[in-house]
Design brief:
Layout (H helix, E strand, L loop, with lengths): L4 E3 L2 H9 L6 E4 L16 E3 L7 H13 L5 E3 L1 H7 L3 E5 L9 H8 L8 E5 L4 H14 L3 H21 L8 E8 L2 E3 L4 H7 L3 E2 L13 H7 L3 E4 L6 H5 L3 H4 L8 H4 L3 E4 L1 H5 L6 H12 L13 E3 L2
Parallel strand pairs: 1-2, 1-5, 5-6, 7-9, 7-10, 10-11
Antiparallel strand pairs: 3-4, 7-8, 11-12
Helix pairs in contact: 5-6, 6-13
């Protein structure tokens, strides 16, 4: 039985498509851009932050909006009403990352002409991400497809774990999620680093990404630094790498001396808690353990910064 689905975060869009339900999608958020076919769907949200701001200006604008109790996103309720969804999928994990549950509830309360099921995701760990796939599959009436997808994803994770089983050397890895101010990737990313053969620093599994001082990174002196700003492509991140280069003592870091600074596509991979979270593990495995893994992401999913 077909159903009308609107997804208001990219990860949910990717989950729905991975379950083979792309034909049931009738609307998406302004950020949903994968797989390619979803770009033709009507857009049901917009950001209240201008394009092309610097990292510092984005951070400032976000804090101003949240301080004034304003949303970072606007939900187009007229468009949603017109699309008449049966299901709307959103999130409650981060008010900055995507349209929030509160935004959706406020926009749709007593507004639609029929009952609508709102599914809200709140992943903080890899276990939660995989659990959300199961949750959505069940809610959309395709539990078997969900089980098969999870089995396939788990198999890819197990291959990496198996190949690294007897590797004792686990280099320290700093994953940088924002450049100004500096934020280190938390939530599921430290766990992905561990699976890929590294030792994450300055962030804990399942906890929100913390802001840190440059001196914290200097003192930790990681073996590897991977820059993966939230919502940024590799090209966008390249434009702000000077923010790291100008930090005091940058050239003295072990990662710099050993030429182990990398830029990863945070927008398409690490910041999307959906099926491509396993792609993110494979990217990390290529970076951290290059002698063991070549999955083919170099140049697209990540590059070495020279």
């Amino acid at each position: 039985m077909s159903q009308r689905i609107i997804t208001l975060l990219p990860a949910a869009t990717e989950i729905v498509c991975a379950l083979g339900l792309e034909e049931d999608l009738v609307g998406r958020s302004h950020e949903c851009d994968f797989p390619e076919l979803v770009k033709q769907l009507p857009v049901c949200s917009e950001a209240n932050i201008p394009d092309n701001l610097s990292s510092a200006d984005i951070d400032k604008k976000v804090k101003e909006l949240l301080y004034d109790a304003l949303s970072i996103y606007t939900v187009n309720r007229e468009k949603i009403r017109e699309l008449a969804p049966d299901v709307v999928i959103t999130q409650a994990q981060c008010d900055v990352c995507a349209v929030s549950l509160g935004d959706v509830e406020a926009a749709l309360k007593d507004y639609l002409d029929k009952p609508v099921e709102i599914i809200s995701l709140q992943p903080n760990s890899l276990h939660d991400v995989l659990g959300d796939i199961k949750l959505i599959a069940f809610a959309l009436g395709t539990p078997e497809k969900g089980d098969q997808l999870l089995e396939d994803l788990q198999e890819r994770i197990d291959i990496i774990r198996h190949k690294l089983k007897f590797i004792d050397t686990k280099p320290t890895v700093a994953c940088i999620e924002w450049l100004e101010p500096i934020m280190v990737s938390g939530n599921w990313v430290p766990e992905l680093v561990e699976i890929a053969g590294g030792t994450p620093i300055l962030a804990e599994v399942g906890k929100h990404s913390p802001f840190v001082q440059w001196t914290d990174i200097k003192e930790a002196d990681p073996d590897i630094i991977i820059v993966m700003p939230c919502g940024f492509s590799i090209e966008r991140t390249m434009k702000e790498m000077h923010l790291l280069l100008q930090q005091h003592g940058f050239a003295d870091l072990k990662a710099v001396k050993n030429n182990r600074i990398y830029i990863a596509d945070g927008n398409q991979y690490f910041n999307r808690p959906g099926p491509r979270i396993v792609d993110s593990i494979e990217i990390l495995a290529e970076i951290i353990s290059p002698k063991q893994f070549i999955f083919g992401y170099e140049g697209n999913g990540w590059v070495k910064f020279n």
